[in-house]
Specification:
- A seven-stranded mixed sheet has the order 3-2-1-4-5-11-10, with helices on both faces. Strands 6-9-8-7 form a four-stranded mixed sheet.
- It is an alpha/beta fold.
- Helix 7 packs parallel to helix 9.
- It is built from nine helices and eleven strands.
Length: 277
């Protein structure tokens, strides 16, 4: 069955997932078995599948070890979703440390504000009215014109997971400049991507990559023709130039992901850790 799934169109896969997640939610609602600060299963359509708690703890481990996150850190997560990483950080970050999460899905922000903030007042969540076809939100402001609602030099750590993999290069460039603005000097950012270089181009051409980036839009590749934001891969050299422009120094080597080879690596997507200089 797992081998056959790749031949199913995305619309069929989504319907199957909706039926499965809806059944789980109904069961947990009846039996009262949903864990505290765990969102409905239907939220997996936004944040992806897998174990909510374990994935969050995995990112926490990486942020501590690669970005220097500690109990007093001021932290910004762009694309916080339903708080998968935030929940994992609640027993680590204590006042005067703080966490701010931003997302373009208003119901996710509302859920986090209702379920997490009352228990952890130093964890706050903010709605960003920004357009993105993948998130089915197309009447907000342009991502390339968005300005984060925070002051300059505020955060020790900024991280984004599976955000830039749904954004076009000009939007990524604008976000990196904003990220640099709100970071403290010597602060760290931890960001995931699908990066394209000569090795990855060969992997894609030979059908060895786990993502089928078959559609060329000029300055990026995508797995989808009609809605390219579903999954976007960008040139590594272009991304490096954006970091340099934003005053962010990449902590080489880049942590390449599993997606391009199928072999086990640091994470599924590629990860760039950088320092504001």
């Amino acid at each position: 069955m797992r081998m056959l799934r790749k031949y199913f169109p995305p619309s069929v896969k989504r319907v199957v997932k909706m039926v499965m997640y809806s059944s789980i939610d109904i069961y947990q609602s009846i039996t009262g078995t949903r864990k505290p600060m765990t969102p409905p299963a239907m939220a997996s359509l936004l944040i992806g599948g897998g174990n909510f708690q374990n994935i969050g703890k995995g990112f926490r481990f990486h942020l501590v070890n690669k970005a220097g996150l500690n109990k007093n850190s001021t932290v910004l997560e762009i694309g916080c979703g339903y708080g998968r990483v935030a929940v994992a950080l609640t027993d680590l970050i204590v006042s005067p440390g703080r966490y701010d999460g931003v997302d373009i899905v208003e119901k996710a922000v509302d859920w986090c504000t209702k379920e997490i903030t009352p228990h952890y007042p130093n964890f706050r969540f903010h709605y960003a009215d920004v357009s993105n076809p993948y998130a089915k939100h197309e009447d907000g402001r342009s991502a390339s014109a968005y300005r984060l609602p925070f002051g300059d030099n505020t955060y020790d750590v900024v991280y984004l997971t599976s955000v830039f993999s749904h954004m076009r290069p000009n939007e990524i460039r604008a976000y990196l400049n904003e990220i640099s603005r709100v970071m403290k000097l010597h602060g760290k950012c931890f960001i995931t991507y699908y990066l394209i270089n000569s090795f990855v181009e060969e992997q894609i051409a030979c059908k060895r990559a786990l993502q089928d980036f078959r559609y060329d839009f000029g300055d990026f590749l995508s797995t989808h023709k009609r809605t390219p934001e579903h999954a976007i891969a960008v040139s590594e050299s272009l991304v490096r130039s954006y970091y340099q422009e934003a005053g962010l120094v990449i902590d080489d080597p880049i942590l390449y992901g599993t997606w391009a080879t199928g072999e086990k690596h640091f994470s599924y997507q590629d990860v760039i850790v950088a320092t504001k200089q």
